Amino acid sequence: MRPLLTLSIAASLALAVPVMALPTPAQAQIDLDVVIGRPPPPERVEVIPAPPRPAGFVWDKGHWRWDGATHVWVPGHYIRLPHPGAVRIPGHWVEMPNGRWRFVRPHWE
Predict the structure, then answer these.
(1) Which residue of 34, 60, 84, 95 is surrounded by the most CB atoms within 10 Å?
(2) Which residues are bridge partners to 93 per DSSP?
(3) What is the pLDDT of residues 33-83, one digit of tens each?
(4) CA pair distance 83, 89, nearest whole angstrom
């Protein structure tokens, strides 16, 4: 094989292989439950601003998230409906029978 052709093939493979190895968004998602031993602080009262235009947004109320050491407030915000009739379940904490607390992530139903 001629050196120039060999170099072209090697360069093409070097550029193609890293692109093929990148994870897709579905492969990169990890879903872990957060369970802790102390309850979250009381919910904060939020002033809900007027919704953005055009229509099709719902308010996703704020919630407490756990950062590994303490609760951190995540303020509410508007989020676009994925389809008409979708219902947004906000993030919230649920006390388990053993007295520990499990975080339920915000999601659509």
Answers:
(1) 60
(2) 103
(3) 889 999 999 999 999 999 998 889 999 999 999 999 999 999 999 999 999
(4) 15
Spatial distance between the Cα atoms of 64 and 44, rounded to a whole number of angstroms: 9
Give the separation between CA 73 and CA 104, rounded to whole angstroms.
15
Return the H-helix or E-strand segment holding 77: strand 77-80
Percent of the chain that is helix, strand, coil (3-state, to 5):
20, 30, 50
Region 1-20 average pLDDT: 49
Instruction: Find how far residue 5's CA is from the centre of its chain.
Output: 46
Q: Which amino acid appears at position 12 of this protein?
A: S
Instruction: Round to whole Å and give the CA distance between 16 and 109.
Output: 40
Of 71, 46, 51, residue with least CA distance to 61: 46
- Please tell me the number of Cα atoms within 13 Å of 48 on its side-chain side: 11
Residue 8: C-alpha distances to residues 17, 84, 104 (Å): 14, 52, 52
